[in-house]
TrEMBL record:
UniProt protein name: DMT family transporter
Transmembrane segments: 35-53, 65-85, 91-111, 123-140
Annotated source species: Desulfovibrio falkowii
Protein keywords: Membrane, Transmembrane, Transmembrane helix
Superkingdom of source: Bacteria
Pfam families: DMT_YdcZ
InterPro entries documented for this protein: YdcZ
Keyword hit for Nucleotidyltransferase: no
Keyword Amino-acid biosynthesis: no
Length: 142
């Protein structure tokens, strides 16, 4: 339950982050607000590593290069939310993002990519997709 609570809290923060970044973009621009968002996150995590890290950062060159691109995915997600929120709203943006997240998660689980255990795609997961997609259709506004 702790991990569920952590992720619900994280989801709340993402919902807050989207309109905050979109508001900043009206002042400084879309790319600039994306940069400020990531710079703030980098500073926060840099301090966390400094004070609470385990000293493993020097092992980074041992990691395969494809493992270094996770931040690029996050930057694209932040940029996309900054563009989408003023046009389709926070709820629709979040639901569309969640649907995309679930879609990729199901593919990863089904094939066991990245060394994760295989979790086959079955009727329950399909029903979950249908319900999320129905919810997205219900909240979408033009």
């Amino acid at each position: 339950m702790l991990y569920i609570a952590l992720m619900v809290f994280g989801g709340c923060l993402v919902a807050l982050q989207s309109p905050v970044n979109a508001a900043l973009s009206r002042t400084v621009g879309i790319l600039e607000s994306s940069f400020v968002s990531f710079a703030g996150g980098t500073l926060f995590l840099g301090l966390a590593v400094l004070f609470f890290g385990r000293g493993q950062l020097m092992r980074l060159p041992e990691a395969p290069s494809w493992q270094w691109i996770g931040g690029v995915f996050g930057a694209i997600m932040v940029l996309n939310t900054i563009i989408a929120v003023p046009r389709i709203g926070v709820l629709t943006t979040a639901m569309a993002m969640i649907f995309g997240n679930l879609l990729m998660a199901a593919i990863i689980d089904n094939y066991g990519w990245f060394g994760l255990p295989v979790t086959p795609f079955g009727w329950r997961r399909l029903l979950g997709f249908v319900l999320v997609l129905a919810g997205l259709a219900l909240v979408f506004r033009r």
